[in-house]
Amino acid sequence: MKKVLLFVYDSFAEFEISILITCLNGSNYELVTCSPYSISKTITSAGKLKIMPDTTVNDVNSDDYSALIIPGGNPYHLLEDAGVTNMIRSFFDSNKLIGAICGGPALLGAAGVLNHVKYTASLTQNDTQYLPVMNWNNKKEEHLVTDQNVLTATGSNYIIFAEEVLRQLKILPADEKSPLQYFKEPSMS
């Protein structure tokens, strides 16, 4: 079975990836959670959801995964974490799919990835703690940007983010216009 790595850290925004991970369930992909902390440390999301990670960044081999997903949140405390940046860079250098949403692209910036790709993020130059790692020249004011093996989205665009990740993984057909309509419009089902 193929695997997708979900990077989780204290303050990650679980709602930004909840539809994606729901859709991965039942596919031919196994979801594996990864943390920058000890394997025994519980991760607490922005909504106070508690998660026990499956592995740590230091134990990840990008060859074992088809994709890396990085949710937003407040990753500032991880910008200088060599384990995190090395893991991200390994996925990028191996041409593996990387999906980052909202504030997650800051970790791509810390790993030097944003020097090589166009991207979007919910961060602006007013988020001064992220200024040293963001390549603002490559930022696009768009909801979703795909460049090379990197897919980025702003936080409120989590449905189109999920759709595009699922397309890139070939779980959804590339030409299907609105495959996650169920999550977009209320119905009685």
Structure description:
- The protein has helices at residues 15-24, 82-93, 105-110, 158-168, 181-184, and strands spanning 2-7, 29-35, 43-44, 50-51, 55-56, 67-70, 97-101, 144-147, 150-153.
- The protein is an alpha/beta fold and 189 residues long.
- The chain has one domain: Rossmann fold (3-Layer(aba) Sandwich).
- The strands form 2 sheets. The chain has a 7-stranded mixed β-sheet, with helices on both faces. A two-stranded antiparallel sheet has the order 3-4.
- A hairpin with a 2-residue loop joins strand 8 (144-147) and strand 9.
- It is globular.
- Residues 2-167 form the DJ-1/PfpI domain.
- This is DJ-1/PfpI domain-containing protein.
Short structural summary:
The protein is an alpha/beta fold. It contains five helices and nine strands. The protein has a single domain, classed as Rossmann fold.
Question: CATH superfamily name?
Answer: Class I glutamine amidotransferase (GATase) domain
> Which fold name corresponds to the CATH topology?
Rossmann fold
Alpha-beta classification: alpha/beta
Strand content: 15-25%
Helices and strands, in order, run as: EHEEEEEHEHEEHH
Widest β-sheet, arrangement of strands: 5-2-1-6-7-9-8
Computed CA radius of gyration, to the nearest angstrom: 15 Å
Q: Number of DSSP strands? A: 9
CATH structural class: Alpha Beta
How would you sum up the global shape?
globular
Q: Average pLDDT value? A: 95
Distance between the termini: 31 Å
Protein name: DJ-1/PfpI domain-containing protein
Domain DJ-1/PfpI: 2-167
InterPro entries: Class_I_gatase-like, DJ-1/PfpI, Prot/Nucl_acid_deglycase
